[in-house]
Amino acid sequence: MLLVNKLAKIYSNGEIEVQALKGVSFEIEQGEMIAIMGPSGSGKSTLMHILGCLDLPSSGQYFLENEDISKLSEEKLAEIRNRYIGFVFQQFNLLGRTTILQNVETPLIYAGLEKNKRRMFARETLERVGLGHRLHHFPNEISGGQRQRVAIARALVNNPSLILADEPTGNLDSKTGKDIMGIFHELNEQGHTVVLVTHEEEIAEHAQRIIYLMDGMIKWDEVIK
């Protein structure tokens, strides 16, 4: 499903160059649940941005669903993101002035669905994460765990093959974090590929495999269960 080959990323700031990724290579099969770990500055955020088609590599190749992402235009990258990828962020990134239902509808607007279908799919997805009774509430009217469920529903509404979760429990208490990880397990069992970007060992232990980055390179990559 996903192939990364000798991926490198260099950021330039005047005369200073920072090599965030240094020839990273790996594959991810459809249906895997993987954790990408590493300390601050290891390159994991840069890698997530490239995997999510939010940025392009300086060199190397990235294939998603057999398409060479490294050569696409901004317009095509946006299309790929909307079709294949669901994002879940630590800060939730919800729109504060729109209802939960409208937040989850947003990706479907970009996909060009008409209003009745958008509303139906968003409602069904919120019910799937246990928030069917909160459709018309605003983000500031629900708990942090519920906001993360909304973020997961928004990531799921286009039925993406790849879910990228960046520190998905970082703002949650331990009990709520376990509940959220339970949702990711359910999604993975339903066939979604899940990539967790985290520095927390307890979160990484939920994955089947860990890719550990250090100084822009893969220090180790192993199956843990």
Automatic annotation (TrEMBL):
GO terms for molecular function: ATP binding; ATP hydrolysis activity; transmembrane transporter activity. GO terms for cellular component: membrane protein complex. InterPro entries: AAA+_ATPase (IPR003593), ABC_transporter-like_ATP-bd (IPR003439), ABC_transporter-like_CS (IPR017871), MacB-like_ATP-bd (IPR017911), P-loop_NTPase (IPR027417). It comes from the Bacteria. Residues 2-225 form the ABC transporter domain. CDD domains: ABC_MJ0796_LolCDE_FtsE. Belongs to the ABC transporter superfamily. This is ATP-binding cassette domain-containing protein. It comes from Iocasia fonsfrigidae.
